[in-house]
Specification:
single chain, mainly alpha, 2 helices
Length: about 180
């Protein structure tokens, strides 16, 4: 009788091990799936953090560019003021030469030189004004870009907070399930 019992147990042993290994495989697959999901969440969070840092860096860089352009505009405005003062002086000198000219060739040459000098001054003033306009447009573009980056940053922060909340809810749910299974 003992021999038969041992033989029956030996014959049934493979069935028990197969049943246990199937359950073990299912548990391993479930654990692997959870690990994969956690890894994906972690990778997504890292990607969002990198995007947020890049956005912050873009905002800072663009703000620095705006400040640089504003300093450039101030310098150009100072140059314009100086050149306009020089232009007035040159115009006064020209009117003096024209009023006191004796119709000789030296006076005519001086008048022509003064006119050329005035024309150059006017060209420089106009160029500076165009540069100011270009810088102003550049500042506006940079400010638009800064606003777009700030909006993008806010969206990323909201998305990050939402994912944190969902993760916490999922964690709480799992904790609840564990407590219910223990009971």
């Amino acid at each position: 009788m003992r021999i038969r019992l041992v033989l029956v147990l030996l014959l049934l042993l493979p069935f028990f091990t197969i049943a246990q290994s199937g359950s073990l495989q299912r548990q391993m697959q479930a654990a692997n799936a959870m690990n994969r999901q956690q890894n994906q969440m972690f990778m997504l969070q890292q990607q969002q953090q990198r995007t947020m840092l890049r956005t912050l860096s873009n905002i800072e860089t663009n703000e620095d560019k705006v400040a640089k352009e504003e300093r450039k505009i101030k310098k150009l405005e100072q140059k314009i003021t100086e050149r306009e003062a020089d232009l007035k002086t040159d115009q006064q000198e020209l009117s003096f030469l024209e009023n006191n000219s004796d119709s000789n060739s030296d006076a005519q040459k001086n008048i022509e030189k003064a006119k050329k000098k005035i024309a150059k001054s006017e060209e420089k003033i106009n160029k500076s004004k165009k540069d100011i306009e270009t810088s102003s447009n550049k500042i506006q573009d940079l400010q638009k870009q800064i606003e777009a980056d700030k909006i993008k940053k806010e969206e990323l922060e909201k998305k990050h907070e939402e994912e944190k909340r969902l993760k916490q809810e999922e964690k709480d749910k799992k904790e609840k399930e564990k407590q219910e299974n223990k009971k």
